[in-house]
Amino acid sequence: MTVREFTKQRSSLQNYTWFGLPLVIIGGWFYPKFGYLLLGCMIGALGIAAFRGRTWCNWMCPRGSFYDLFLGKVSSKKKVSAFFRNKSVRITVVIVLISILSTLLYRAWGDVDGMGHAMVLVLTVTTVIGSVLGIVYQERAWCHICPMGTLANFVSEGKFPLYINSSCRHCDACEMVCPMQLNPAHFKNTGIMGDNDCIKCSLCVIVCPNQALQFQKYRSNSHRSQYPGSFSYKGEPNA
Q1: Among 101, 120, 150, 234, which residue carries the largest CB count within 10 Å?
Q2: How confident is the model at residue 210, as a pLDDT?
Q3: For 80-105, how does the pLDDT look when each residue is reduced to its tens digit (9 = 90+)?
Q4: Residue 47, by phi and psi: left (phi above 0), alpha (psi -120 to 50) or beta?
């Protein structure tokens, strides 16, 4: 399987989820109960993170899928500012947004549509902000400060890690395809990806020309048994 084929496969999975975002943001203003779907995303993100890290963010998150499929076409593809990865900044965003949502829910408590509307409003505003960041920087810029992403980061420690073996030559091919702009090669000395923002998309595994990366569940097997062939930067099999 080439990188191009793998990317197409990943996009096909995202096609099953992205429509959830406009469904809530647009439909929610006419049918506020759609807002409760946001609770499902919150539970899914944290529940899966406790066992598989930020896997939810790969293709199961409607907003992440929407950003990859559509915003990625108009994004400037710039390096996301380190400001958005600052722990204090991320915690502040979590506190502010949870406080806002809690206040809105408290004021509408007992009103089913009113509570749903509160969640639609918060999702709409944060999606607009995320879209602006995605265009100015990179489509997944919001994912670095997403409250659920940050909380998932905190509970993901040691869950479904990415291993880096001695074959790594620090060519940075992995960073070039990473949706979160991470570089597993930076953790070569420890042998394990030490950044919990990894969304387990496996693009780095596929693109690595030296087959130096693999996830825990395949640790005892050869890369070739799971991903046959060797891969170049452009995703074409090497001779």
Answers
A1: 120
A2: 93
A3: 999 999 999 999 999 999 999 999 99
A4: alpha
Write the CA distances from 11 to 160, 194, 202, integer angstroms.
22, 26, 13
The candidate with the shortest Cα–Cα distance to 188, out of 204, 166, 173, 211, is: 166
Could you tell me if 140 and 67 are in contact, meaning their C-beta atoms sit under 8 angstroms apart? Answer: yes
Phi and psi based region of residue 158 (left: phi greater than 0; alpha: psi -120 to 50; beta: remaining): left
Q: CA nearest 59: which of 201, 227, 160, 204?
A: 201
Intervals of the chain under pLDDT 50: 217-239
Q: For the chain, give the percent of residues with pLDDT over 90.
A: 87
Instruction: Give residue 90's pLDDT.
Output: 98
Q: In this structure, are residues 168 and 210 in contact, taking their beta carbons and an 8 Å threshold?
A: yes
Give all domains of the chain, ordered by start, each with its CATH number: 3-155 (no CATH), 162-226 (3.30.70.20)
Q: What is the pLDDT of residue 229?
A: 34
Exposure on the CB side of residue 135, measured as CA atoms within 13 A: 6
Instruction: Specify whether the CB–CB gap between 128 and 26 falls below 8 A.
Output: no
Number of helices (H), then strands (E), in the chain? 11, 2
pLDDT in the model for residue 216: 63
Query: Is 84 exposed, middle or buried, given 0-12, 13-18 or 19+ CB atoms closer than 10 A?
Result: middle
What pLDDT is stored for residue 96 in this prediction?
Answer: 98
| Closest C-alpha to 63, from 125, 20, 116 | 20
